[in-house]
Amino acid sequence: MSTPRRKYQYLCTLGTTLAAFVSGSAVGLSSSAEIIFLQEYPDLHEHDMHYIDAALKIGAAVAEVYFGISISYLGSRLTMTAISIPYALGWYLLAIGKTKEKLCLGRFVLGFCLGATCVAAPMYIGEISDKDIRGMLCELFSLSMTFGILVIYCLGEFENMTLLTLPFSFFPLVMFVVMLFLPDSPVDLYKCGKIDEARNALIIFRGKDYDIESEMEEIKQYTTTGKDTFWKNLYRYSSIKATVMLIVMHCIQQLSGIYIIIMHAFRLCKMTNVFEKPNHGAIILGVVQLIFSSISTGVVDRIGRRPLWIISLAAMACGHIIIAQHFQTNVDDTRSLQPLIALIILVAAFCLGVGPLPFVMIAELLPVEIKGCISSIAMTFNWMLGFIVLISFQPIVDKKGESYMFYSYAGVCIVGILFVALVVIETKHKTLEQIQKELEGIR
């Protein structure tokens, strides 16, 4: 049989999307919770919210350092299993926390689990899926994150902190049970010397009638490419090239300013004066994210990664310029739909490419021996830049104005287009071994 069965690839990917759903909710919480925090906790001030939000980014960065080392030993599935209980604890701390310190701790724990999820889940999905649907399955991770963001935006309508947080402490417990029953990836098993178990896992994911021998040989080549030493593998040309690509991709993602919009959708909708109730604007943006994440999931393995990157960045640059012009010329015009249109363009374009593709390609570009380490380094850059963007946004706006910030974000997107066009390789419909050969310059 030449075509693999894909039922278990889909089922196991859906199992990991529970982690993505909870992660998206953790990201979107900032927008929904800000006004509730200030109403329910009189001791909190608006400037305290910057520290509470920043705790999420710091926790994620710390997780990358830790899991960059441990994921090579635990494997991607066990890593997701291990963070399930702390994830539940983080939500519970936010539900019962009444002080800035407890709220910061809860956000830090959520950030720690978020950081681990953003490395382990795409890695697991990339290693269990066949090359023809790998992009689509990896994009389901981002789709589930956007669904989590939308759900927590909607719950923000009730303006109740317990309702906004406590239900999400249940989902990680379900995730823990699901992860116990998922098989490890064949790559993880082969890397640990469990050849027969890797073969059995591949039969599960491809079907018993599928000839797995050629794929087993590819896994063997892929997992033994860097067996000499970790450092020798790290300094190979293909590894350096992939590392540069991934770090720059993640820098572009954060410096594009999109997480300012996602994490502060309520505040931005209030600033633009379009909605009487700003959370309605946030919900609209959440719906747009979900729709365009679904579109991206359907087209990524048809169009390819590079075209989606370029289309996404070009549209985001246009969106930033439109909203910058609004703040520059007619910020007090409440009848203008210009800022809403710009925000919709921004989140739609982000969900087409800039949002999901760094996670898709982190699962594709790296050899297995250094995948955990380098993906964690790239994600550490991601979260630390996110932290800097988050805490610097309001001071720069106060000093330079909103239009200056959004023109700057547009500039980042334009630089990103040039980088993708000149440096990033296409990975559509290529095996992991073929990608490594292309990075080495072998045709």
Automatic annotation (TrEMBL):
<keyword id="KW-1003">Cell membrane</keyword>
<feature type="transmembrane region" description="Helical">
    <location>
        <begin position="340"/>
        <end position="362"/>
    </location>
</feature>
<dbReference type="GO" id="GO:0022857">
    <property type="term" value="F:transmembrane transporter activity"/>
</dbReference>
<keyword id="KW-0762">Sugar transport</keyword>
<feature type="transmembrane region" description="Helical">
    <location>
        <begin position="78"/>
        <end position="96"/>
    </location>
</feature>
<feature type="transmembrane region" description="Helical">
    <location>
        <begin position="108"/>
        <end position="125"/>
    </location>
</feature>
<dbReference type="InterPro" id="IPR005829">
    <property type="entry name" value="Sugar_transporter_CS"/>
</dbReference>
<keyword id="KW-1133">Transmembrane helix</keyword>
<keyword id="KW-0472">Membrane</keyword>
<dbReference type="InterPro" id="IPR050549">
    <property type="entry name" value="MFS_Trehalose_Transporter"/>
</dbReference>
<feature type="transmembrane region" description="Helical">
    <location>
        <begin position="242"/>
        <end position="262"/>
    </location>
</feature>
<dbReference type="InterPro" id="IPR005828">
    <property type="entry name" value="MFS_sugar_transport-like"/>
</dbReference>
<feature type="transmembrane region" description="Helical">
    <location>
        <begin position="307"/>
        <end position="328"/>
    </location>
</feature>
<feature type="transmembrane region" description="Helical">
    <location>
        <begin position="406"/>
        <end position="425"/>
    </location>
</feature>
<keyword id="KW-0325">Glycoprotein</keyword>
<keyword id="KW-0813">Transport</keyword>
<dbReference type="InterPro" id="IPR036259">
    <property type="entry name" value="MFS_trans_sf"/>
</dbReference>
<dbReference type="InterPro" id="IPR020846">
    <property type="entry name" value="MFS_dom"/>
</dbReference>
<feature type="domain" description="Major facilitator superfamily (MFS) profile">
    <location>
        <begin position="12"/>
        <end position="428"/>
    </location>
</feature>
<feature type="transmembrane region" description="Helical">
    <location>
        <begin position="282"/>
        <end position="300"/>
    </location>
</feature>
<feature type="transmembrane region" description="Helical">
    <location>
        <begin position="161"/>
        <end position="182"/>
    </location>
</feature>
<feature type="transmembrane region" description="Helical">
    <location>
        <begin position="374"/>
        <end position="394"/>
    </location>
</feature>
<dbReference type="Pfam" id="PF00083">
    <property type="entry name" value="Sugar_tr"/>
</dbReference>
<dbReference type="InterPro" id="IPR003663">
    <property type="entry name" value="Sugar/inositol_transpt"/>
</dbReference>
<keyword id="KW-0812">Transmembrane</keyword>
<dbReference type="GO" id="GO:0005886">
    <property type="term" value="C:plasma membrane"/>
</dbReference>
<protein>
    <recommendedName>
        <fullName>Major facilitator superfamily (MFS) profile domain-containing protein</fullName>
    </recommendedName>
</protein>
